[in-house]
Design a protein that fits this description.
Helix content of chain A: 55-70%
Order of helices and strands of chain A: HHHHHHHHHH
Radius of gyration of chain A: 27 Å
Shape of chain A: flat
Largest interface: C-D, 57 and 65 residues
Oligomer: homotetramer
CATH superfamily of the largest domain in chain A: Voltage-gated potassium channels. Chain C
Largest sheet of chain A: none
CATH class of the largest domain in chain A: Mainly Alpha
């Protein structure tokens, strides 16, 4: 009995290293197979929705999807079993995604059409960052995330303004175009305003009255200027992070350890230490 | 009589704190209810213009709008009564918006279709900035506004140039496309030019002659470069404001006079002067 | 005789000050009337092409245009007469535009439809910069022009690359879409490629085959990245010009007169002069 | 015999200088003729695909193309003969392009329609950079390439994220629009998502359900922010390269070690050291 338990313990340890680790050969191999299967499963779900393809290969598609789902289920169970604090994994970002990746397929046994939601598996592709573990990419990824986080405050303020402007312009266009050419309601006009301000411009709704076209021209030129703002915000932050790239040679101040000083500083701005 | 007056004074004081203030619990509660009602009223005006929805719930929509309008009217009157210099509020930005927010509904009693203009209430959403009073957001908002103000001069010059270019290209396209495919007049051609230069591209008007398509290609590539200019202007200003965020007392260094140091510096990075 | 000549001389002097100068009251007034007439004449040419408007007011439009043309002709002649070196004006940028502004109207007496080219008058609006003479705007305008000039080299290299890519992608799409859905020739496919790369996206030509749509997706994401390059080039230059704003305190080096040194330089990078 | 060989040697030398060199007059002339022929041949291949043009001038087009192809073939052979290590040229970037430029025409003798691929000749236009050899352009080109290379890491991470988002949004829209209005499969929906996120907006597929339009609005505003990221990345790198343009020997100042000085500085702006 004791031996069985210790054998089980060893199995748990080995599996843990393979599933969670990336340093051993087996661990690496497992990760690459996993990534391949995720890619394959996302492709399968996509192809299932292409009518002409699905009609020919429906059985094969479903069969393959079930195989992958069972593999993912086993992997999910092993991840729970081989970890010391399973609840931490269960409620982590990746834990929830791993569950959402297998759930739709089982639900499709009871409800029609839910297998489409298996596409949530594409989120599992985010694991790539864990798998690669390439210092260059992870540092780039950190820089990007820092820059985007730093600009979040300004972006929120900006989008709030844009939404108010959007409601106003949408209402004006609704009154001006007077129910013509797709401007059938204020929400539809707001939809048009967003399509125009973001310079997407489908053309499914477009003004026909001269006054409407004049206002539309104004909105487009406004969109020009408005488009510049988020770009400016993000660029300024990225430029800052790129100018003092903390990963490359982030020599912290020998006096106080801060890494935040202008690139051509002669003295530490935090503690006065001469460089 | 004296007592009634003093009671009225106390009521005025209390109401003033609730309506204008944001530091007391009651003041905060009032602000959040107000914000909710503004959002609701904007939504109501929008839904009224959706034909299928309006046919079903017209009576309910109008009823709710009147309730909100009466609430806004009471609030407007209280704001005037409880302030010592009412004319200052009346002619302030928010005072005018508050009036415009209730006027259309009363006018709709006499004129048909004016209730649509109640959508101007969305401008009242700008109060959010007063309500939140969150230091992070207000500083971000100030930085953004400063950057946009600083770039106004260049943007005006730029848009003036773009408009002249637009008139010229519009005229050329009118001659080249010769009344075909929507280029029926110079104003229409200018409208097309703006749609193209801003990369919106509805496709309601698009060139069909080879020469017209060639010029259009040129305009698009020009639009590429032109689009870069406002972005460059705004980005440069935001980068400056982000690099030396002036809101927190931008005192030049007493040692060397530089204004370029991190906001929380204790020593000048240029000359080592302790702050 | 002598007196007549001296009178003519005085007339010439006075007229010169009014037409060319902006410092006297009369000179300013003349400039504003001129600007108004330019705007009016551009508007007239535009309205003439709007069929519904032209049918009603054709006679009035033509009459007004002739009046403005005669005024412009007089102004043109006076400009030549009252200047000491007329050929300098005649072959200057503004001189040529002033001639082009009146020529189409006279040519319309002999050839049909040339009056449309009167729209070249819009170029005369560039005079605004001379008229305003506002230090803020002219300095902004100079900064912008400097930044755009400085980035010209990179922009030329960039557009050259983009054109080669455009030809290649256009050819590939022509082969892939195989004459379907508007891809009728390589020039047409190149037109589509430019429409897509610049994110204009009219939709008059759009891929229908799955492979075509896949390549189109790739082109769009490429356009994303490509769009970033001119913006980056212009932004970098504007940021530089904004960082050392030569207009504000453009103290040229007392040693060699250069104005090109980093904002926090202690010594002139050109001649070593200590600041 | 010896004389013939030495004559051949001299011919080889001379030809080498003309074909590969750009410093002699003959070499320059050859390069400009070559560039002209490349442009002409690309134009010919294009015009061949314009049905109306090809029907009239098919014989002339084919004749001219054969002449150019033979010229290119001769040039290709001479390039191989007059170089000491031919295999280096054969497998170089330009060597492969030069071969691909002549191959399609010969293949068109055996297979129908391959002559279209002659358009690969447009890649030969890249030779322009060798021909011009203008220091300004080549330094600009190097700066651009360095900036784009430096931002590659971040761009790869960014596009990877965008693709995952694209798959998710595409799937959601497929479910929401439920096979209406072109959202016939997940791949088609992903195509629409890319068209929208990149702000191209053809309008061949556009949402019709209110919920679909609401999600589309969200996607467009997201595209706004997302568009800012690559621009920010590239701008930050270009700004860095423009600020310290490394191409012209970026030797740090021997006095103070700074690398931040204008490219044509004679003295260090930081410490006054003469260069």
């Amino acid at each position: 009995m004791q031996r069985v338990k210790s054998q089980y313990q060893r199995f748990k340890q080995k599996t843990h290293i393979i599933i969670y680790g990336t340093s051993t050969k087996a661990g690496r191999l497992f990760d690459f197979i996993l990534l391949g299967l995720i890619l394959l499963s996302v492709a399968l779900v996509m192809m299932e929705t292409v009518a002409s393809f699905d009609q020919k290969y429906h059985a094969e598609l479903v069969f393959l999807e079930w195989i992958i789902t069972i593999f993912f289920t086993l992997e999910y169970l092993l991840r729970i079993l081989t970890i010391t604090k399973p609840y931490k994994y269960l409620f982590s970002f990746y834990g929830i995604i791993d569950l959402l990746a297998i759930l739709p397929m089982y639900l499709s046994l009871f409800f029609l059409g839910t297998s489409v939601f298996s596409v949530v598996r594409s989120l599992r592709l985010l694991r790539l960052f864990k798998i690669l573990n390439h210092p260059q990419f992870s540092s780039q990824s950190i820089q990007l995330r820092q820059a985007i986080n730093a600009s979040r405050g300004k972006i929120v303020v900006f989008i709030y303004f844009v939404l108010i402007i959007t409601i106003l312009i949408g209402s004006i266009m609704y009154v001006v175009e007077d129910n013509q050419s797709g401007f059938t309601s204020i929400p539809a006009s707001i939809y048009w305003t967003i399509v125009t301000l973001t310079t997407v411009g489908y053309g499914d709704i477009s003004p026909v009255t001269p006054l409407g076209q004049f206002i539309a021209s104004f909105v487009m030129i406004l969109g020009y200027g408005i488009l510049a703002v988020p770009t400016g915000i993000v660029t300024a932050e990225i430029a800052r992070k790129t100018a003092n790239p903390s990963p490359k040679c982030p020599l912290p101040c020998s006096g106080c350890g801060t890494e935040e000083y202008p690139p051509n500083a002669n003295y530490c701005p935090q503690c006065g230490q001469a460089f």
